[in-house]
Amino acid sequence: MIRVLLADDQPLIRSGFRALLDLEDDIEVVAEAGDGGEALALARRHLPDIALVDVRMPVMDGIEATRRIAADPALTGVHVVILTNYGLDEHVFDALRAGAAGFLVKDIQPEDFLHAVRVAARGDALLAPSITRRLIDRYVSQPLRTDAGAALKELTNREREAVALVARGLSNDEIADHMVISSTTAKTHVNRAMVKLHARDRAQLVVLAYESGLVVPRES
Q1: pTM assigned to the model
Q2: 118 and 185 fall within a common domain
Q3: Tell me, what CATH number does 84's domain have?
Q4: Residues 144 and 122 in one domain
Q5: Is the separation of the CB atoms in 3 and 50 below 8 Å?
Q6: Residue 25 neighbours by CB under 8 Å, 6+ apart
Q7: Which residue range forms the structural domain that includes residue 154?
Q8: Nearest by Cα to 21 from 133, 118, 92
Q9: Helices (H) and strands (E) in the chain, counts
Q10: What is the pLDDT of residues 118-173, one digit of tens each?
Q11: Nearest residue to 95 via CA among 201, 214, 168
């Protein structure tokens, strides 16, 4: 059973998402919050698998709530998915850096929304190739982080290749096809890279790949 926390300051939005989720046999909404502070408290109380968090809320916004959830050792199993009306703006970018597993635009189709919840529950990042393109564009004018590049030296060549493919938006199966290895081996490369780089999830691998220069705009 996938346990979900809904955090949005608009009751109508929360009720709409809950109505969709309540129809699914494998998903349970365990709590609802109207602001980031309440979301953090409820995450600690209920330990959901997924926290669907609006990026803009009173008291504590979604970015700060995400940062505190990601920093809490007791909440390592909580995957935060940011909800936004605006696509990939600077707030979503900041949320990904804070530890979010991905983001969803609120006008998403119901079937895509349900699929996304299940994807996030598996620990996969909600970063489609089109979103990755926007992330790359964000990095064009930013200097590389030398500490991020140094961290990549801990990886094997195959692990670096896998991280680069994650950053391009590929799934484990697609990485396996590209590297001509099994899906299990691809997943192992990705997971080992996450451990070595202290990445919470695949979304953080994407951010690190761009910050280190492992992936540059012309490669996507």
Answers
A1: 0.70
A2: no
A3: 3.40.50.2300
A4: no
A5: yes
A6: none
A7: 137-212
A8: 118
A9: 11, 5
A10: 888 887 666 554 555 565 555 544 544 556 667 788 899 999 999 999 887 788 88
A11: 201
